[in-house]
Structures are given as C-alpha cells and as structure tokens.
Amino acid sequence: MDSFSSLLKKENMAELLLVIIIIIYLIMGYETPEAVSSILDSALGKLSLFLIVIYMFVYTSPVLGILSIFVAFTLLNNANHMNNMNEIIHKYVPSEANKKQQFNAFNQFPYTLEQEVVHKMAPLIQNGTTLTKAGYKPNLVNLYDASPILQK
Prior knowledge:
Number of helices: 7
Order of helices and strands: HHHHHHHEE
Largest sheet: 2 strands, antiparallel
Distance between the termini: 97 Å
C-alpha cells in the first residue's frame, strides 16, 4: 500500500503518468507495430527489454516494475505472433505479379463461333440512319394525364 501512496506524491507524477499509460496499453490491447515487433523478436531486442524491466524494478516503484513485466510479456507475445503471421503470409499468399499472371492465364479464350457470327452480321445502323424503314407506326395508349411523346 505504501507503493501506491508514494506514486501520488508530486515528485513521482512522471511515474504515475507512466503507470496510467501502461494500464491503458494493457487494457486496450493495441497491436505492436511491425517494425517494433521485428526488433523485439531478435536476441538483442529481448535482452534490451529484459534490461528495461530490471531498470524499472530497481529505480522506480514496485508497481511500475510489475506492470513493466506484463508489458514486456505482451510485447514479446505480440512480436512473436506478428513475425509468425508475416512468415505465413509470405509463404502462402501469392504476390500481385503471380495473381496477375494467373488471372491472365484464366482469361485467354479462343475465338468462338458466336464471335465470328456476330462479326459477320451486317450492322443495323450505318452512319446514323437505319438500313430499313420500319413497317409499323407505334400507337400510344391512354397517357393518364402525362405529356405526349413528340413524334416525327
């Protein structure tokens, strides 16, 4: 209980602020950035994290030391998880170039009979005029108070 009361003194406000930030980090469960996780997953990163935890125990309050253990465990766990996910992604997810090559291979179709027949068909409209005059005239039904369509 003496540790908590010593944190509330004016000269220990920086430690109190650090305790609040650590608690928010632990509760909210923020993900570790990829650059930090790759550093922490190395031997030098683990050693430096261990030294920071020891420093927290020796030179700050015990509450901050215990919270630093939890943060170190969380950081190492997230770093290990992130690096494993990156290895899985690089191993099993194809790159954009590979996906584009596969899609292009799937979209190569032979020239079909339907395309040939449509290509040989005479167009119904040439130069903005129809080829043949229609043999019928459209008949309008009851418009129900709508304006009539203008006919030529």
